[in-house]
Amino acid sequence: MPIPLQDGWIYGPVHSRRYGRSLGVNPLPLDRKLCSLDCLYCQYGFTRAQDTAGRAEVPSAPEMARAFEREFARLAAAGDVPDWIHVAGNGEPTLHPDFLEMSRALQAARDRHLPASRIGLLSNSMHLNRDDVVRALNECYDDPAMKLEWGTPECFAAMNQVSPKGFRRVVDGLKRLDRFAVQALFLRSPRADNTTPRELDGWLALLGELRPYRVEVYSIDRPPQSEAQVTAVPKAELEVIAQRVRGLSIPAEAF
Ligand code: SF4
Description:
Elements: E1 10-16, E2 20-25, H1 61-77, E3 84-87, H2 99-113, E4 118-123, H3 131-140, E5 143-147, H4 153-160, H5 166-174, E6 181-185, E7 187-188, H6 197-210, E8 214-218, E9 231-232, H7 235-246, E10 252-254
Parallel strand pairs: 2-3, 3-4, 4-5, 5-6, 6-8, 8-10
Antiparallel strand pairs: 1-2, 7-9
Bound molecules: iron/sulfur cluster (SF4).
The site of iron/sulfur cluster has 10 residues, from loops.
């Protein structure tokens, strides 16, 4: 079953299995998921809209700036400092039309009120053809965690239900980042399986080329939409995959 959408621009702090105590930032519409992918395993259900966010339905960068000021000052005054501030939300956050301006406002408010909190981003890696997105990631984020979990364009297309052309766009885009972490979810389903030898060999070759500073290996932790018939990969198998990443001298952890 899909989980409900976030109903605010700032939510939490919540406990995340990968990051500990984390405050969430959602720069996307509150009433629908907005994403350029349609992953078989998405916790918000299948994607209905893949376009860029219209300015009328997302908070403007100045509105987000005021919300950051208000909420971060309140948390600091209460001594309630989160380990992380994560930009994620109801889909793909880099689809915000003023992503760079919003990210700069976030960084400035963090520096003022919560300097001990690190800023992370969970992104699907699809919009690194935009200069403003690349600039924001290089300038404003302590830990951009980028999706890269396929070894071939065919698996990319099957897992994300989009054109295989996006695979090259992701790989070329990641080369534009100064540094990044990789988030990789492994699954099996009748429609796609990114744990086959061909997929894993291709994925490891990409990691060797792109050199992320950390790789997170995980699987689904809650059942997604039942039509996708997705099954989780056991932890022991994830550990073997993480070990192969470490063999490239890249730090890796299985969750
Ligand atoms: S990239 Fe994230 S939000 Fe978008 S469909 Fe995939 S899992 Fe869902």
